[in-house]
Amino acid sequence: MIGHIQELIENALEHLIQREEIQLETLPDIQVERARNPAHGDYAANIAMVLQKQLKKPPIEIAHMIVGALNQSKHIEQVEAVKPGFINFTLTKQCRLQVIRKIIEQKEDFGRNDIGKDQHVTVEFVSANPTGPLHVGHGRGAAYGSSLVNVLKKSGYQVHAEYYVNDHGRQMDILATSVWLRYLELCGDQLRFPDNGYQGDYIVNIARQVRAKFGDDLRVEVNQIFDQVTKDESQGGDKEAHIDDVIQNSKNLLNDNYQKVFKIALNEILSGIKDDLEDFNVHYDEWFSEKKLHQSDWIDRAMQRLKDGEHVFKKEGAWWFNATYFGDDKDRVLMRENGQKTYFASDVAYLLNKFERGFDRAIYIFGADHHGYISRLKAAAKALGYEADKVDILLVQFANLFKGQEKLKMSTRSGSFITLKTLVDEVGTDAARYFYVMRSHDQHLDFDLELAKSQTKDNPVFYIQYAHARICSVFRQLDAQNMPYNEEIGIVNLKLLDSDYEKALIRQLSMYAETVAKAAVSYQVNTIANYLKDLAQSFHQFYAHCKIQGDNEDLRNARLNLCSATRYILADGLALIGSSAPTEMYSEDFDQDD
RNA sequence: GCGCCCGUAGCUCAACUGGAUAGAGCAUCGCCCUUCUAAGGCGAGGGUUGCAGGUUCGAGUCCUGCCGGGCGCGCCA
To answer: What CATH number is associated with residue A32?
Structure first.
């Protein structure tokens, strides 16, 4: 519709130029937007005010000229030039009612657009190190990333969702060694657990599995492990050096068996992460292994590519990427003095891999604490020969958990974090997914666990789902009431939907498609959440004032069609953000007979 | 110190990316169930959009400087 109005205005301007009533070198961009205030019609154009300087005429005068030159349109009932210089368009009733028919016809395909037609994008999100279960901090990235994937798909993009598994490197060695030490304790050995080892109970659980599989086969003389190692921090030494020494000894003592422990630890944690994400309604197309980058030649290829472009130099024994040349504030090490490749080297290789797989765009979703990565990744993209704007890095701010007024303090360090699984068990996937995305991703979020669980209108998830369930309930009762639903009769009589509440609801429905499109373009998934709340509100207001199951067959069926369309949109929108649309609401506290 | 993000009703947030009288919910106060889920609805009060300038027809939105908050600045992952 916006396009249609733009065309009308463009034609009008051309007429005016032809008739030499105005002079314009080039046609300006014609902005048409939805009117905020229903009193201003359905759409508004600001073109007259934009042109006032060029034409040296009062905007209201220009507006009147344009209105006078507009062609007739069967969709538009009224055009008005008003106050400062807006041109307001009011659609015909017929045109406004069409959205109901369209939704009922297209069902879950309604709201699709082709903004991303023929575009392949990869969205990488969460990518937490597989050294422990996901916690609530990861939850927001998961909810946001997954919702964004859904929104982009709905907008026609070919989307590939990826989780980058850091299954290589020192952290993983610390994990494997931690598991092995716990295993030895289970075998009855006494030892001093390193300060920097992974402390959580889940390590002991994995150790138990190792023991179940290997019995006592992996036992060694404990003293050997701590032979010649640097003192730990709490012994007045260095915790990093200490754990590195312990790891080295463990590798030597276990030989081939080290890899077996390593594998069990990795698989256990990774499958836990996968399960948690599945339960959270988060799905991936690919779990991309960092180790594979090392085993194949991707890292070497990426390094070579940088070297070919003369973006690499050697300093103090290490190989550096001259990231500053591309706008980063520091140069970055690719290979350390000891020959080990850095994490950043893998990142560059992975980025190259993404582009060579043919993606038009690589979207990254990081926690806000990683914002330092933006400039170095973009620098890498440029150095590899790609445009920096093919890489979109989105930062997700932290969420503060509350229980009512009480702020839950959590530290990732001591292992006293709340896991994502605990959260989902507590409030459910539907509420958690909604709460995580209801604010803009680049804004801090207060997540109130009590509110998320409450079954009142204060809880937006409940409020929205209740609207959906209410509609389902209305339809369930029709047979018993002997009030059959006839879609065709309803379609013919849509014009009977004439109250302010019905108009408001229809208007809300008509905004769904543009809301989805806007969310896709701006990456603002929260607009979907806000929209759903507004839609639910419009519905509840309609419901409270308009009797649906009435005796008038024409009106009843028209209203049922309105309900039906609303139900589709509620369900579709909820699905986009990963929440479900229940057909009835249950509560332990609520007594059905009351 | 440098860099990034953010300051909107007492609280939590919107505002269609520069448009018309800045909107919701909570909290406060008042109303509506013999009627499809009151698990809901209707109404009232509440604002110098952190402060000061600038850009233009027009600024919560863009630019500069302050004030206040969050995060980041390793041959760590």
So the answer is: 3.30.1360.70
Q: List, for residues A203-251, the tens digit of each pLDDT value.
A: 999 999 999 999 999 999 999 999 999 999 889 888 889 999 999 999 9
User: A576 CA to B11 C1', in Å?
Assistant: 29
Closest CA to A270 of A415, A416, A126: A126
- Number of other CB atoms surrounding residue A511 within 10 Å: 16
> Which residue has the least CA–C1' distance to nucleotide B21?
A37
The per-residue pLDDT for range A420-432, each reduced to its tens digit, is 999 999 999 999 9
Domain range holding A229? 170-253
- In whole angstroms, B45 C1' to A115 CA is 45
Beta strands in A372-443 (DSSP E): 391-396, 399-403, 406-407
Please state the length of chain A: 594
For residue A529, the domain's CATH number is: 1.10.730.10
Classify residue A369: in a domain, yes or no. no
Which nucleotides of strand B come closer than 7 angstroms to any CB of the protein?
2-6, 12-17, 19-21, 24-27, 35-37, 39-42, 56-58, 70-77
